[in-house]
TrEMBL record:
This is Organic solute transporter subunit alpha. InterPro entries: Ostalpha/TMEM184C. GO terms for cellular component: membrane. SMART domains: Solute_trans_a (SM01417). It is found in: Membrane. The chain crosses the membrane at residues 28-48, 68-87, 99-117, 157-182, 202-223, 235-256, 276-296. It comes from the Eukaryota. Its main location: membrane. Keywords: Membrane, Transmembrane, Transmembrane helix.
Length: 330
């Protein structure tokens, strides 16, 4: 019976409430919850600012630029979620801002892995005689028959281009969506064929998959080389931010649009779904910010120089072993 009352309430069919309306309707539990989540978002940003100051003093360019961008993913998303929690009518803009920032982070994480190797030239010098396995997720993990690709300047350029296109085009589509929204042509909940969202969002999803593929290829190739740089937990945190900020939010919003999440005045079903997603993200990004601080705020020792003759040494060792084995046969 309560569900029927909630569904028939006028606020279930209205726009999200204003910030002042939220403050008026908060009970004691709501006040404590909003205060704690706001404190978490604030601490996340303060930790990030302190970490940026440390990295700018201790790390050389251009590695420090990549580290600062990658580290900013969790606190920026937490801050945008906090703003969206307090100002529900700005949710579309806060979500787009966080997603646009993460699109840049995807490219910067690829750059970070290369800088951990010493830069593009050092990477080519160290891995130039090897080959890349491209049968990785999210595009081709089910295609192990794909040939391995030689590591060249052209290959490296294509990998960077695959990530860079997402950073640029995501920003372009974000601006386009805002322009269409001002003209009442863009609505996230409008799934009709005539709506702009049904065309823009799937295309952005395809661009996302294309951009994640080069990062996965490079990580698979460098995870053993960069093990001393703790690249595996760094990549895990990067993937966790991706899953929580994109997949988790998408699932909650789909459930809200289908009416699975009940309307609770002054929030409609969709606005309540956004609120739940934002509150979860603040808590999750706060934890990730603390973990990434442990991973990145440290003394950075360069990798040992690449042995240009390692392949020849390995072949000579195999030849010697084979010769000794043949001589030992009576």
């Amino acid at each position: 019976m309560n569900n029927l009352v909630n569904i028939s309430h006028p606020s279930c069919f209205q726009k999200p409430p204003l910030a002042l309306d939220i403050i008026v309707h908060l009970d004691m539990f709501g006040i404590i919850l909003y205060a704690v989540l706001t404190l978490m978002a604030t601490v996340s940003m303060l930790v990030y600012i302190e970490e940026c100051a440390y990295i700018y003093r201790k790390v050389k360019t251009p590695k420090k630029t990549a580290i600062v961008w990658v580290n900013g993913a969790a606190p920026i998303i937490a801050t945008m979620s906090c703003l969206g929690m307090w100002i529900p009518r700005a949710t579309m803009f806060t979500d787009m801002t966080g997603a646009t920032y993460f699109a840049i982070v995807v490219y910067k994480f690829l750059v970070l892995m290369l800088e951990e190797c010493g830069g593009d030239e050092e990477f080519l010098k160290r891995c130039g005689k090897q080959k890349l396995r491209i049968s990785t997720g999210p595009c081709c993990c089910c295609c192990p028959c794909l040939p391995h690709v030689a590591i060249t300047r052209r290959t490296l350029f294509l990998l960077k281009l695959g990530c860079f296109q997402f950073a640029v085009l995501k920003m372009v589509f974000t601006i386009l969506s805002i322009i269409l929204w001002t003209n009442d042509n863009y609505n996230v909940a409008d799934m009709e064929i005539t709506g702009a969202a049904i065309w823009i969002n799937p295309f952005v999803g395809i661009l996302t998959i294309i951009a994640l593929w080069p990062v996965a290829i490079m990580f698979v190739h460098l995870r053993s080389i960069l093990q001393s740089q703790r690249i595996i937990p760094k990549y895990a945190m990067y993937q966790l931010v991706l899953i929580l900020s994109q997949l988790q939010s998408a699932i909650i919003n789909i459930l809200a649009m289908n009416g699975t999440i009940a309307c609770t005045p002054p929030y409609s079903s969709q606005a309540r779904g956004y609120l739940m997603s934002q509150q979860l993200l603040i808590l999750e990004m706060f934890i990730i910010t603390l973990v990434t601080r442990l991973l990145y705020r440290r003394h950075y020792d360069p990798l040992p120089p690449a042995d240009l003759y390692q392949d020849d040494n390995d072949q000579n060792a195999k030849f010697i072993q084979q010769t000794e084995a043949e001589e030992s046969i009576p």
